[in-house]
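target protein:
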Amino acid sequence: MFDIGFGEIFLIAIVALLVLGPERLPKAARFAGLWVRRARSQWYSVKAELENELADDELRRSLKQTKADLLEARDSLAQSGAALKQQMEQTGADVRDAFESGTGSDSARIDSGESDHEQPLSSVMDEWEQPELLPHDDDMDATARADETEAEDERIADAEHRADARSREALSESAAHIDDSGHDARRPDASPRR
């Protein structure tokens, strides 16, 4: 706060001793110390208040900026949503128009007995009803049963593989216990020899 060095303090103490005398100097020093402490506490409280105000202003600016960014993002999303909706409606209308124009010409050709291969509609329907083109229920049931049987076989093979692995692991552990040179295999409670 003030730039006072040791020399200045010493000079002030000598002048105070000469002016006040040795009897009043301790009281004056206590009084001066009290006022210095009060001045410091006031200075620190004003400084803290200013820092708090600056922090509040910074927070308000940050909140305003964030709010502006969010509003801008909301507007952007609304515009893109509207554009997407318009594009979807346009695509839907194009598909409907294409379907209607395609269906109209196909139905006219079917009614007249024409098609891509110049076959009448009745002959196309006859081809669809031929037994070679439609799958039979028996064939589908056999295929489904074969798939189920194959899946069951895979589960059984996997279970056998896991059981074999567990039994090999148990055998290797028991062999490791038996091979321990300090362990008596005949007595389970025997401790290793030293």
